[in-house]
Design a protein that fits this description.
The protein is an alpha+beta fold and 780 residues long. Helix content is 29%, strand content 30%. The chain has twelve helices and 50 strands. The two termini are 76 Å apart.
């Protein structure tokens, strides 16, 4: 505590500042003791916060082994990733698999005959009808506004029918522009079918293989004969290639004045033709016919004729031979419309990149548990646990030489935390088989120093490789069910491990759907859609579709109508991926359309939006259709209330035994009985139990450490208030002492002045007296 500014007494010649400071310092000893207490409490707060940081680090490492998906680390090796790659979703079965990729999935791709111009209106007008695979065909109108290759390309792409149109320039000297169509989906079934009915101009041809006109490569300046394509030329091949012709011999040769030999090659094959007269068709390879006009050809003259086959790429499936084969064995042939195989090997996605060859041989895929990655996570957990243990041990130390102990030595909260950690590490997991219910069962043990370590790494590796499900249960939460259709999903900290929970389902989850009104069977009374009544919009699970345009036409079956509706809904970019299902329900002479959401529960619904023009709702019986929302699963767990959302049933917050327990219920309505459907047994592994306990310890605001530090901070604040009050009293005390000393100095100063005055007066009297006495003697 600082004193007031003062100096040594002028009158008393005493150091009054030191005297007052000594008095105040002696009287302030209780406050100094409180300051020591305040510093100790503050240090305890800092130490608990440091402990909390280490516990949070431990918690982070535990979360990496408390979740089944996080702990399920797969090891996948592929012998030739140029051919295929493989990734795991979860943990595929361990094994070695042999595959030969026989072919890749491909898009269907076709091109039209060539045209001289891409942007001019050289095409006729009318309609083009296109379909991809088994989708309903779409008719596109071509009129004076879009009857060019560019216009037709745009019209096809705008129709959004699963086919992409582009214009290619093949570099030919004549008619180089071609319209190319590519199916957006791979697979043998996804072939493009197109019918073009254009008149009053050029039509599109995607079917006929032809020869292009001859193109000069290198003609002599002396050459005068012209080469043209014969009028009856008809390409009999099926591949796009170029025939190159070279005039044999040397010097000028007159057409019709003898035989002129022309050698040809297509890069793979070769041959010769003989020109004996002019203006006559000369037969060449694969249906080619050429005609040479009057004039001269010169030895070495070169020209070429290109072929055109409309099918640039066949739609094809990916084909894989699965299995090594060998004597007495036959590999399984598996096909896919795409180059992705999701279910060839359980839990694994395989992407094809190329095909195997005799030289490369089959691709070997080896799967198993990535023991190294899992052991790294376990190591991280052990390290974080031991770091906490070291920190706690440091607090519990006592130095007899210095008589000093750790900051939290003897603290009850610290001892409680230590006890909880130790018990969770050492206690067996309730509900698990005795052979795999402790960490020691997989080679992890507590040493004499209380720290964890992997004492038997071979035992841990063996457990991970050969008993991985048991390892999962040892660390994570799990549940076993007595009933197929009810499965454990997750639990909360309130759920007691090792407990059995009786499940009574009163209502199964269902899909929402739209049931159309009854229509006469289209087989008896055709349904006709035109451009004036072929549009609908739907709202599925709250998501609104685009305007869905159905193909105009006459529908003579309910199945065809449902298929058209399904095709258009699936192609919509708003609701197409929601798994909406359309079916025609046949009632015998009558029927109705049923549109069903793929989701479950009260948020599952299908509705129509009526505010559109050219609506098909009335024609399809959907104007007065019945909307049925889905049902959430309903029931009780352990006789306590549970809330259903879709197929998920969750114990209500506040329940005595089931708060936060989540179950996935896939039972159908027909499987729900008046009696309880089954029992779920919940098990909580070491990592889950530690996570829950650490949550209670480290939780902000209400955790054990937060409560402790809050109490300590309250004590610090209270001590500070006491110190402040004490110092205020001492400040008053100091001021009083300083005033007393000031008064004393004033009084002493006055006394000194009076003394000085009296001394002066006495001196004067004495002097006067002496003078008087001396004078008298002289006179006498």
């Amino acid at each position: 505590m600082s004193g007031s500014q003062s100096i040594a007494g002028l009158a008393s010649n005493l150091n009054t500042t030191d005297i007052i400071n000594a008095i105040i310092e002696a009287e302030r000893k209780p406050a100094a003791l409180m300051e020591t207490q305040q510093a100790e409490k503050t240090k305890e707060i800092s130490t608990f916060k440091a402990l909390s940081a280490k516990l949070l680090a431990l918690q982070t490492s535990i979360r990496a082994i408390s979740n089944r998906s996080a702990l399920s680390q797969a090891s996948i090796s592929v012998s030739n990733e140029d051919v295929l790659t493989a990734t795991a979703d979860g943990l595929p079965p361990a094994g070695t698999y042999s595959l030969n990729v026989l072919s890749l999935a491909a898009h269907h791709q076709i091109a039209s005959h060539g045209y001289d111009d891409a942007s001019q209106s050289i095409m006729g007008t009318g309609t083009i009808t296109i379909a991809l695979g088994d989708r309903s065909p779409t008719t596109i109108t071509i009129d004076a506004e879009n009857n060019s290759l560019v216009g037709i390309k745009k019209a096809i792409n705008d129709a959004d029918i699963g086919v992409t149109a582009t214009i290619v320039n093949d570099g030919s000297g004549s008619k180089p522009y071609r319209l190319m169509l590519t199916g957006n989906e791979t697979g043998q079934k996804n072939k493009i079918s197109i019918t073009s009915s254009l008149s009053g101009g050029l039509d599109l041809d995607f079917t006929t293989s032809v020869f292009d006109d001859p193109e000069i490569v290198d003609f002599s300046g002396q050459t005068t004969s012209q080469v043209t394509l014969g009028s009856t030329a008809s390409y009999t091949g099926s591949t796009n290639k170029t025939f190159t012709f070279t005039v044999a011999g040397n010097g000028p040769q007159t057409v019709g004045a003898g035989n002129i030999l022309l050698d040809w090659t297509d890069g793979s094959n070769s041959g010769s033709i003989v020109v004996s007269q002019s203006d006559t068709e000369i037969v060449g390879p694969e249906g080619l016919k050429l005609s040479f006009g009057d004039g001269v050809l010169v030895g070495g003259d070169t020209f070429q004729v290109s072929t055109f086959a409309p099918v640039l790429q066949q739609a094809s499936d990916a084909v894989v031979s699965f299995g090594a084969g060998g004597e007495g064995a036959s590999p399984l042939t598996v096909r896919s419309a795409t180059n992705t195989f999701d279910d060839l090997i359980e839990g694994m996605t395989i992407e094809l990149n190329g095909v195997t060859t005799q030289a490369s041989g089959p691709v070997t895929i080896k799967t198993g548990v990535n023991t190294s990655a899992i052991e790294d996570k376990i190591d991280a957990f052990i390290s974080a646990y031991n770091d906490v243990k070291d920190f706690i041990d440091e607090q519990n130390k006592y130095n007899t030489d210095t008589s000093e102990g750790g900051t939290l030595l003897g603290d009850l909260t610290l001892m409680t935390i230590q006890s909880r950690l130790t018990s969770m590490i050492g206690n067996p997991v309730a509900g698990l088989d005795k052979s795999m219910n402790t960490l020691s069962a997989i080679g992890i043990r507590v040493g004499t120093d209380g720290k964890l370590s992997i004492r038997d790494s071979a035992r841990l590796s063996d457990a991970l490789e050969n008993n991985f499900d048991a390892v999962l249960k040892l660390f994570t939460d799990s549940g076993s069910s007595s009933t197929q259709g009810i499965s454990f999903f997750s639990s909360s900290a309130d759920i007691k491990a090792g407990s059995d929970f009786t499940v009574d389902i009163t209502q199964a989850a269902t899909h929402g759907y739209l049931r159309g009104s009854t229509l006469t069977d289209p087989a008896d009374e055709n349904i006709v859609l035109t451009d004036n009544n072929n549009r609908i919009r739907l709202r599925v699970d709250g998501i609104v579709s685009n305007e869905i345009v159905l193909e105009p036409g006459t529908y003579s079956s309910g199945e065809a109508l449902a298929n058209e509706l399904q095709t258009r809904i699936s192609a919509d970019d708003k609701i197409g991926k929601l798994g909406v299902a359309v079916e025609w329900v046949d009632l015998g002479g009558q029927g109705y359309l049923n549109i069903t959401s793929s989701s479950y529960g009260s948020n599952s619904k299908v509705e129509t939006i009526s505010s559109i023009t050219h609506s098909a709702l009335s024609t399809l019986g959907l104007t007065d259709g019945t909307v049925r929302y889905g049902n959430d699963v309903a029931g009780t767990i352990n006789g306590e209330k549970a809330t259903g959302r879709g197929q998920m049933l969750t114990g209500d917050e506040g329940n005595a035994t089931t708060a936060g327990l989540k179950l996935l219920v896939t039972l159908t309505s027909s499987q729900v009985s008046p009696e309880a459907e089954g029992t779920i047994t919940v098990t909580k592994g070491v990592a889950v139990l530690m996570t829950e306990s650490l949550d209670r310890i480290t939780k902000s605001g209400s955790g054990v450490i937060a409560s402790k530090t809050t109490g300590l901070q309250r004590q610090v604040d209270d001590i500070k208030q006491q110190i402040d009050a004490f110092d205020k009293r001492l400040a008053i005390r100091r001021a009083a002492l300083e005033q007393k000393w000031a008064n004393f100095e004033t009084l002493l100063s006055q006394l000194n002045s009076e003394q000085s005055y009296l001394s002066s007066q006495l001196d004067n009297i004495s002097a006067n007296f002496s003078q008087m006495t001396g004078s008298g003697k002289g006179n006498g």
